[in-house]
Write a structure and sequence with these properties.
By secondary structure, this protein is of the alpha+beta class. It is 29% helix and 21% strand. It contains 4 helices and 5 strands, in the order H-E-E-H-E-H-E-E-H. Strands 2-1-3-4-5 form a 5-stranded mixed sheet. The longest helix is centred in the N-terminal third of the chain and has 18 residues, at 3-20. The model has no long low-confidence stretch (mean pLDDT 94).
Length: 146
């Protein structure tokens, strides 16, 4: 893990926990919090927000990215995600693709169990490349089509 990520690990995980408290989940009752670390050390938080039409629901990870990108942030170095589940849960497929739009496959993603501080294996450290192998990214649009 890069130095900036290591030095901000606890702060990033705590921000994901804080973000989870703002989840709007009247239907699933499945709270998710995400915290996105920018290259300059700023943390952008996101929570999942459900909608009665279901299709209008947005995940915590995408909420964090939408907030960051809409404020001009485009360079990210790590992401932390947590839920109320006792084991680490990974982002959904749609979120993985949104993450890939802005992040390299080697970006660290911390997946935290609900009680991660009480467990030795409460945080699973992964990368985007591990979660989304053989990914399609913006650079693929520049490939020759011959």
């Amino acid at each position: 893990m890069a130095d900036i990520v290591a030095s901000n690990r606890d702060r990033l995980l705590q921000a994901a926990v804080e973000a989870k408290t703002f989840a709007y989940v009247p239907y699933s009752k499945f709270r998710v919090g995400a915290a996105l670390l920018t290259e300059d050390g700023e943390i952008i938080k996101g929570a999942n927000i459900e909608n009665a039409s279901y299709g209008g629901t947005i995940c915590a990870e995408r909420t964090a990215f939408v907030k960051a990108v809409s404020e001009g942030k485009r360079k990210f170095v790590a992401l932390a995600v947590t839920t109320d589940v006792a084991s680490p849960i990974a982002p959904c497929g749609m979120c993985r693709q949104v993450i890939r739009e802005f992040c390299s496959p080697d970006m660290p993603i911390l997946l935290a169990a609900s009680s991660y501080m009480e467990k030795e294996d409460g945080v699973r450290e992964s990368t985007l490349g591990e979660l989304l192998p053989f990914s399609f990214g913006p650079e693929d649009l520049e490939r020759d089509r011959g």
